Fold this protein.
Amino acid sequence: MKRVEAIIRKTKFEEVKAALHKAEIDFFSYWDVRGIGKARQGRVYRGVAYDTSSIERIILSIVIRDINLKKTVDTIIESARTGEIGDGKIFVSNIENSYRIRNAESGDDALYIKDEEKL
C-alpha cells in the first residue's frame, strides 16, 4: 500500500477531485494549507499588490493499493498542471498496514468496498 500526498493549487482542486473520481479513486482526505515557496514575487490583481511568499494550497492524502499508484499520480499530474511555477508537489510513501474499524479487515481489503457491499 502507498500514501500519496499531493500539494496542489486551490484553483485546481475541483478539477483534480473530478479527475480522481473518474479514475475510480473515490476516497481521500484534504485540507487547506499554507506554505512558503522559493519563488518570491509580488502579484497585482485588480490593482491590489499581493505578496506570494505565503502560498495557499490544498493537500490531498490518499492511501491506495500498489496497483493504483501510477494511475493516481498520473491523474493528479495531468489535472493539476498549469505549466507555471507553483503547480505543487507529490510525495509517495509506504504504508505498513491498514485496518477497517467496522469489521477489522486489514491490508488491501480494508481500502475498498467489495462489489457485494456497495450501496
